Amino acid sequence: VIITLLSDFGTRDAYVGIMKGVILKIAPAVRLVDLTHGVPPQDVVTGALLLRSAVRYFSSETIHVAVVDPGVGSARDPLVVVTESGILVGPDNGLLHPAASAMGRREVRRIEREELFVQPLSRTFHGRDVFAPAAAHLALGMGPEDLGPLLAELQPLELPEPRVGAGEVAGEVIHVDHFGNLVTSISSAVLAEIGTSETVVVVGTGHEVPLVGSYADVAPGAPLAVVGSWDQVEVAVRNGSAARELDAGVGTPVLVRTRGKVMRSQDEEIGRD
Amino acid sequence: VIITLLSDFGTRDAYVGIMKGVILKIAPAVRLVDLTHGVPPQDVVTGALLLRSAVRYFSSETIHVAVVDPGVGSARDPLVVVTESGILVGPDNGLLHPAASAMGRREVRRIEREELFVQPLSRTFHGRDVFAPAAAHLALGMGPEDLGPLLAELQPLELPEPRVGAGEVAGEVIHVDHFGNLVTSISSAVLAEIGTSETVVVVGTGHEVPLVGSYADVAPGAPLAVVGSWDQVEVAVRNGSAARELDAGVGTPVLVRTRGKVMRSQDEEIGRD
Amino acid sequence: VIITLLSDFGTRDAYVGIMKGVILKIAPAVRLVDLTHGVPPQDVVTGALLLRSAVRYFSSETIHVAVVDPGVGSARDPLVVVTESGILVGPDNGLLHPAASAMGRREVRRIEREELFVQPLSRTFHGRDVFAPAAAHLALGMGPEDLGPLLAELQPLELPEPRVGAGEVAGEVIHVDHFGNLVTSISSAVLAEIGTSETVVVVGTGHEVPLVGSYADVAPGAPLAVVGSWDQVEVAVRNGSAARELDAGVGTPVLVRTRGKVMRSQDEEIGRD
Hints:
The structure is a homotrimer of 273-residue chains.
Chain A: E1 2-7, H1 15-26, E2 31-36, H2 44-55, E3 63-67, E4 78-83, E5 86-91, H3 97-103, E6 105-110, H4 126-140, E7 150-151, E8 163-165, E9 168-176, E10 182-187, H5 188-194, E11 199-203, E12 207-210, E13 223-227, E14 232-237, H6 242-245, E15 253-258, H7 259-266
Parallel strand pairs in A: 1-2, 1-3, 3-5
Antiparallel strand pairs in A: 4-5, 4-6, 6-7, 8-9, 9-10, 9-15, 10-14, 11-12, 11-15, 13-14
Helix pairs in contact in A: 1-4, 2-3
């Protein structure tokens, strides 16, 4: 059994190592894989997007523990979510919702089997005290029903949805990756609705970049858009940082439009249907 | 058997991966867990504190290798320390001392079985050449007595101790974590001596923050103190960085005092006993 | 079987975790070791140097996957390189060349067994879609000949070579590590050609530092040169950063010369051969 870990804990401290110690003390044979611990502090949306982007590549035997938990110690519920393609463990603050939907959610339970928790239970580190032991016991074969009662729902997360118009899609940057690539809210499926030939992508108010097949289709230093590894439209600068060179970040508007559309729009929007 | 690794090597280079290669070549079945490699360069005290904070969460079968080693290549001894709850391997410069005390120290040995070392033995990377192979052989079942002779002592580490007065404890910040939380030298046990009701915490010369139960007990952006996951008093800003917002760092004085004490102190210290 | 991973993916995203998911889905029993994911973006030379520095410490059963791949999606070949001391997997852009030479290259093959790839095959993330599944199938026992046809060559990488003169060697900084140590192009073997007694090292235009045996041979804060853990001449500042304090970086010239040579050179180069 694999347990993956995702958090905003960073790697300067021993917090991640401590969670692994708790897990391995209970379930010594489990395989541990770090998804990332570089989620910006308390950034539930980024954590949720990264989690959703990763889960599909793991077997359905996998238990994914995700901890971005600004409400730790408050009344927010600790959850286990059983899906068709794996199990999710983490706080009920929206973090698990996009992944749960993508994975085929089956049931949601509140973790309340307190005798499994690390004692004394802290009010600041449930990754260690609640989620790690819950995941470890699931890995050992404990049924989710032994962790706590069913809940009707888990807290949703509002993610930016692209708006499709005639010959264009309006979206925004949802993640800036390590390379400075701008992952947008516009999926390849939405892109297909307007067709991808003769398409340009406008970032923010000014930059117009071509939609191409791969980074190598433009010259080094030139901007481009591709359907990237998230299966979303992604804006990049070849061998450079689009975030820096296009001065963009999470929330920057991104418009995908057909070249014809551009001409009409330059024509003072005459004939816009 | 688990081997944990803690160092100041960072993750930009292949140093940590190389140590793992050396270990796995000798002991292919061992489990490896990174505690952290983000100890600030040559910062033995931070390394020692992080190591001590983590070891209690691992089984007593675990071998902890810690390398923050500014004296590498000099006469400082390479050590194996056997304790009631695991084995420590690393340089004799104070790094292992706090963990060894917390774990119930049994015996200290100088590693001098040179035929086990990676050859040619470097004078700059004993993590790879001395500590990794020593730990790997211990994991395979070699007895500590086969690594070298008993030593009477290991080098101590001077850690800041809080001073308890009437209705107050004076300590300092000993670690700033990834979130900017300020971990102090004041443990929950010391705190209990003055009682925790009506308690406030003063950071540096100016900031007075309430001692609460969890981050969620104050408004977002507000400062607070809690007994944190280290089981020490910790100063935080909810969803923010206390280090930045209170302009504090390692060594900043922290005073915990009862509210009554505050009033007396405001009253020009009249009645101070 | 061990699979190591080296990349420029950083650790902020889930890219590395995703590669591990792909590998473990195919080969659940494989051991995974990160060499580093901190190669500067698109820096093939640094990636190649770090890879070469690490491979010798792993058993010859190991499969090393390296992905620094600015040409992803273009015509550059995906490779498997079989050597006497392990297998290399990665793009044909020079990244694998220095390690392949050091490991005793036997054969080079183009990976083109498309039914093994993650589908739909992206044009931006072959680490996930091509290299991870290829390595996983090799780990399961697939022969390299089943991945694709032999190639005559792999793309070479031009690395800076030191120039040996009378009583001196001229090289340059090839890597700055996490500590700010300056790893140079001058190996211990080359150094032996001029002898190491009475030797000084000049960094850039101004700084002359002594060649010593270990960091501890100089006072804290003082600069020094040693034969470091790469088995190359390395310039450091004891308990400090040579990169910062000597204002040096990759490409900075470094001259090793005998003390006699220095005197001659001070003597307006009279007698220079």
